[in-house]
Amino acid sequence: MKDDILQLSRELINTLNTEGIDYCLWKNNDVLLSALTGDDDIDILVREDQYPRFFDIISTLDFKRVVNPANEIPSIFHFYGMDLQSGRIIHLHVYIKIFTGEHIIK
């Protein structure tokens, strides 16, 4: 199963670690392998003050931000990147704050 992890997923995690970005892969960790293979999205919490550097890093990996004005939630960002080796897409849900409570504000 480890060999199924996409090269882009490996590059993302390795670069974040090398660059000293504080992050947490959270929510649905029971499907983390599925996310790293492109079968599910990756939920990642990044320190708000490190978000600009995080954005620079994922931009160099060719992740593109996607905005849906009808469904935009402040402090949650969506990015897509293509793993060139496999042609598979990785979807990042990037959080810089966590809101809890009723479903409408999550």
Would you write up a description of this structure?
This protein is of the alpha+beta class. 25% of the residues lie in helices and 24% in strands. It is built from 3 helices and 5 strands, in the order αβαβαβββ. The chain has helices at 7-18, 32-36, 51-60; strands at residues 23-25, 42-46, 64-66, 76-82, 89-95. Strands 1-2-5-4-3 form a 5-stranded mixed beta sheet. A hairpin with a 6-residue loop joins strand 4 and strand 5. It is globular and about 40 Å long. The protein starts with 6 loop residues before the first helix and ends in an 11-residue tail after the last strand.
Quick synopsis:
The protein has 106 residues and is of the alpha+beta class. The protein contains 3 helices and 5 strands.
Q: What gross morphology would you assign?
A: globular
In this structure, how is the largest beta sheet organized?
5 strands, mixed
Number of helices: 3
Query: Structural class of the helices, strands and pairings?
Result: alpha+beta
Neighbour order of strands in the largest sheet: 1-2-5-4-3
Sequence of secondary-structure elements:
HEHEHEEE
- Percentage beta strand: 15-25%
Our Rg estimate from Cα atoms comes to 14 Å
The average pLDDT value, as a whole number, equals 87
Low-confidence stretches: none
Q: Helicity, in percent?
A: 25-40%
Number of strands: 5
